[in-house]
Amino acid sequence: MKIYGDKQSGNSYKLILVTSFLQIPYEWQGIDTKKGETKTDSFLQMNPNGKIPILICDDGRILSESNAILNFLAEGSDLIPKDPFERAKVFQWQFFEQYSHEPYIAVARYIKHYLGIPEERRAEYESKQAGGHNALKVMETQLKKTSYLAGDQVTTADISLFAYTHVADEGGFDLSSYPKILDWIKRIQSLERFVSMCSV
How far is CA 4 from CA 26, 44, 54, 170, in A? Predict the structure, then answer.
């Protein structure tokens, strides 16, 4: 298999984590979005949406969208519950990640960490703060009840949310107000075969 992505992208990092946890062999193909490499004709033939990550299977089939790839790679493992309702809870958190978390925390991180908050994007950056904190509050509430987001066992929901949450400070979000999230981050980092974003 081949994974096309950026190792500093949370969405790509999800796949690095799951392949490490499950010891899935793959070939990495680095993509530099700042150089427009997702907008080339060759890349757009693989993903017309022009976004990373994408997975190319051994048989040539192509899959895009990070959580779809993540769940595909984890299929049949303990990271995805067998019970239909418990599995739906995992998907619930992944939809939350894409619609209520990533658009705020990941975008704020990009504007602050990579762009240095240019004046023309300051208002956008500031507008992301309330939504990001709301997402963190939802996670904190759940983690007061369970060790992991979908229950007391780690699932792909945790991988999805961990990717951008653990670097939320790079987007201006102070996690010291969320002690349960900090405990959860430590639990993820203590898992066997965990790899950090900065080491990959």
Answer: 10, 12, 5, 24
pLDDT, tens digit, for every residue of 86-140? Answer: 999 999 999 999 999 999 999 999 999 989 999 999 999 999 999 999 999 999 9
pLDDT over 90 percentage in the chain: 94
129 and 31 part of one domain? no
Residues 87 and 79: beta-carbon distance below 8 Å? no
Contact 161, 132 (CB under 8 A): no
Which tokens sit at 83?
A: 């019970």
Residue 199 has pLDDT above 70, yes or no: no
Q: Could you say which of 22, 52, 74 is where a domain stops?
A: 74
Range of the domain at 36: 2-74
CATH of the domain at 182: 1.20.1050.10
> Of 43, 74, 105, which residue sits at a domain end?
74
pLDDT at 200 over 60: no
